[in-house]
Amino acid sequence: MADSDDEYVQDISDDEVEAHQVTRGAGAGSRATGQGSRGAGWEVTRTWENVVEGADGTISSTVDGLLEAAKRKRLLKDTTPLQRGIIRHLLLILDLSLAMSEKDLRPTRYLLTLRYTTAFITEFFEQNPISQLGIIGTRDGLAFTLSPLSGNPNDHIANIQKLRTQEPIGQPSLQNALDMARAALFHAPTHTTREVLILFGSLLSSDPGDIHTTISALVSSHITVQIIGLAAQVAICQTLANRTNPSLPLSKTYTVALNEQHYRELLMRATTPPTTTHSISEGGGVRSSLLMMGFPSRIVDSSPTLCACHSRPTRGGYLCSRCSSKVCSLPTQCPACGLTLILSTHLARSYHHLFPLRNWKEVNWARASSSDQRCCFGCQTAFPERPMGASTLRRQSFGGQTRDRMAMHTTRGKPSASKHSVKDVSMASVSKDGVSESGRYECETCGRFFCIDCDVFAHEIVHNCPGCQSREGMLLAAGAENGNEMVILAEAQKG
Amino acid sequence: MNAVDGSDHYTKTSDEPPPSLLTIILDTNPHAWALLSPTLPLSAAIANLLVFVNAHLAFNNANRVAIIASHTQRAEFLYPLPAQETSSHTNGSAPQNGFDNDVEMADDGEPTVPPLSDDANHYRPFRLIQTTLLTALTTLLKTTPPSSLTPTTSIAGALTLALTYINKTTLSLSTTTSSTAPNADTTLAAETAPPALNPRILILSVSGDLAHQYIPIMNTIFACQRLSIPIDIAKIAGDTVFLQQASDATRGTYIKLDHPRGLLQYLMMGFLPDQTNRKYLVPPTAVGVDFRAACFCHRKVVDVGFVCSICLSIFCSPPEGAICLTCGTHLQLGEYGGKPVVVARKKKKRKNVEDGKGKDAT
Ligand SMILES: [Zn+2]
Ligand SMILES: [Zn+2]
Ligand SMILES: [Zn+2]
Ligand SMILES: [Zn+2]
Ligand SMILES: [Zn+2]
Ligand SMILES: [Zn+2]
């Protein structure tokens, strides 16, 4: 702390000088040290901008609206016929320069970016199960590989987590980062996309040479660049986005995030694989087709043999399931017979979108006491007994964390306890989004009761119903296994 | 066993590796065990398993165990059981008690003696597990109707149960120790926060043919991947493609037992170390992995399949009428070998150039 105070005193005279350079970092420093109170006040006014009072004088309608909107969006997203069969090569470029320490996005641009990037990685691989992602960082005028191109989200997330302990420093170099991205994408097979996504917080780029030659090189290698700005529009980014995406409007390729929510939306937009309609319009290529793919097995030879893809001696590799050529990595195309080779585990990553788990129903006290299920089928935790004051006792027995989780869990959003009591009657009868009064949630397929933790976990992470999976006769019944329902999409498209 | 008096919890520092939760999935398919009985009868396997479980618990006083039966058509908890199903409530809550004591010790630094008394010759937690497991297993086998005997086993159900149990236990621990940061999203916190518990899953598998459960098994594998829970496989008999993939995807250990009689040896040497210890060991695991998939239409295991470019469903042969059975999209059958879409024709030239370069260089 003492250091920053000194800095503040010393820097006062330099402030004007720095202001003429493009640095925004100086502003951030002074605010953080000297004018903390003003900074905080500014934050408050900012959050209010987004909140509109409802007719009843509360903001709950706005909150509800946001939750509803998010839910609807999710539903919409899941039914759009996306081409998950696309292999994308995406390089994410993160600006790690001093400008990222600004606090206009809470907590800071830097930390928020790290958090959103983690979510982005997970989402990207869920939407594009057979794609490849790489991450490049730029700071101090240099670019460096944060995470090399690979199809394993865990590696990327681990590498992003390492950044948490570091500080943003120096100035970014777009040119270095783009050159690095171009080199990484150079070997991407021809039938895949080559994309670069830049999260750019600075208003300048400190480059060793002429960035326009780099942009021309990108154009000639068919690399498309999308940019999300965090500060303001920058001319060079505009040029970059325009030249690498000649057919797309600038609003789709270069956007400046207005707030945290908008930033997240912009980032998540980039995870969406091109829709079918989009690819048709793009130039009459293959529409929806049946692809023949091989699921090769991994082998380890006792002595090195040459791989078919690079002619390098390697011991490990995958054997093409059609012609038994050895390739180094997946997904790829067999160099000998042209068969697309992928890992079946990559394909399976998106199957829960096809067979989503049906929502579980809240159980009222009447139903709960008529059943002899006294504990959660999934985790063996005993359910609360029917109490005198239902809601309070249940809360206690499940601990404070559950409540927080429920508040955050948008699909069953119930912002406040007070609201619940007002709407109690209607929610008990309709109760589509509500919280179960008995703390039990019932899978209608297998009739088992679960606690809220298992409900959230089953629907958000594992996408299986534990009850349906261990039901007598389950393995014989073919269709409605797992309590999952086939996406209605099929009927929608036929009709 | 020295850990029993709780003294080493007193000196525990914060950077000590967290205790581990071992979830064992025991494939109890009677058919498969009957076939195995000349070499390894079920009773012997259970005896070996109990020794292994005891060793796991003795490692660290806070270690926990859960045992789930993956029966022919259902999955069931064998240990721990909910309170009212066992004779007295002490059985069910015993592991909870054990842990609560540890938490208190960490908090106030006052080592309390765990409440164990009755039998001087048999460490009480061990005995609890033994009786609960044997009772539950006997009940399970007794209540199996002959009609439900199939050559398969409900691994997917057992894995899902294991995951919900692990999830709940982790949650309850992170609230009591309040070590997780409350700022991040729930899922994010679960993925990134330092774990209060080191969970892992061990499957003792004796039967094959899991293709019917392909999708649910894959779902559980991805959940394990996200939560970094390794799935260890001790393959005693049978042959399954998907368990191999499960252990590979989650970085677990896969051992095919050449000599089932030596089950205990395999368990002790291969599966006892937890994630923390495995960093310092070279785990004995399968090198080659079979990555075949199951088709959606007949649940056949295939190595070359037809994949819908929209939804990625796998079919063993082009579906009838060229309509995807899952998403209903009309598919073009023209070019089977079709590449996964996208990007211009111009690049063909480039590719040749690159290829040429590559060959020159090597
Ligand atoms: Zn190679
Ligand atoms: Zn081939
Ligand atoms: Zn539960
Ligand atoms: Zn169910
Ligand atoms: Zn088939
Ligand atoms: Zn389809």
Explain what you see:
The complex is a heterodimer of chains A (495) and B (362). Chain A is α/β, with parallel strands linked by helices and 495 residues long. Chain A has five domains: 1-46, no CATH class; 82-269, 3-Layer(aba) Sandwich (Rossmann fold); 294-351; 357-384 and 438-495, Herpes Virus-1 (2-Layer Sandwich), CATH 3.30.40.10; 387-433, no CATH class. In chain A, 42% of the residues lie in helices and 15% in strands. Chain A contains 21 helices and 15 strands. Chain A has helices at residues 2-11, 15-20, 25-33, 36-49, 60-79, 109-127, 153-163, 174-185, 211-220, 235-244, 250-253, 260-269, 276-281, 344-348, 351-354, 365-370, 390-408, 417-429, 452-462, 466-469, 489-494; strands at 88-95, 132-139, 142-150, 193-200, 224-229, 254-256, 290-294, 297-306, 313-319, 326-327, 332-333, 340-341, 361-362, 441-442, 449-450. In chain A, the strands form four sheets. In chain A, strands 3-2-1-4-5-6 form a six-stranded mixed beta sheet, sandwiched between helices. In chain A, helix 6 (109-127) runs antiparallel to helix 7 and helix 6 packs parallel to helix 12. Chain A is globular and about 75 Å long. The N and C termini of chain A lie far apart (67 Å). Chain B is built from twelve helices and ten strands. Mean pLDDT of chain B is 74; it is low at 6-13, 84-117, 178-193 and 336-362. In chain B, helix 3 packs parallel to helix 10 (263-271) and helix 6 packs parallel to helix 8 (214-226). Chain B has 362 residues and is of the alpha/beta class. Chain B is 41% helix and 13% strand. The termini of chain B are far apart. A six-stranded mixed beta sheet of chain B has the order 3-2-1-4-5-6, with helices on both faces. In chain B, strands 7-8 form a two-stranded antiparallel sheet. At the A-B interface, helix 6, helix 7, strand 7, strand 8 and helix 14 of A face strand 3, helix 6, helix 7, helix 8 and helix 9 of B. Strand 7 of chain A pairs antiparallel with strand 9 (304-308) of chain B. Chain A: Residues 1-41 are annotated as: Disordered. Chain A: Its main location: nucleus. Chain A: InterPro entries: C1-like_sf, Ssl1-like, TFIIH_C1-like_dom, TFIIH_SSL1/p44, VWF_A, vWFA_dom_sf, Znf_C2H2_type, Znf_RING/FYVE/PHD. Chain A: A zinc finger (C4-type) spans 320-337.
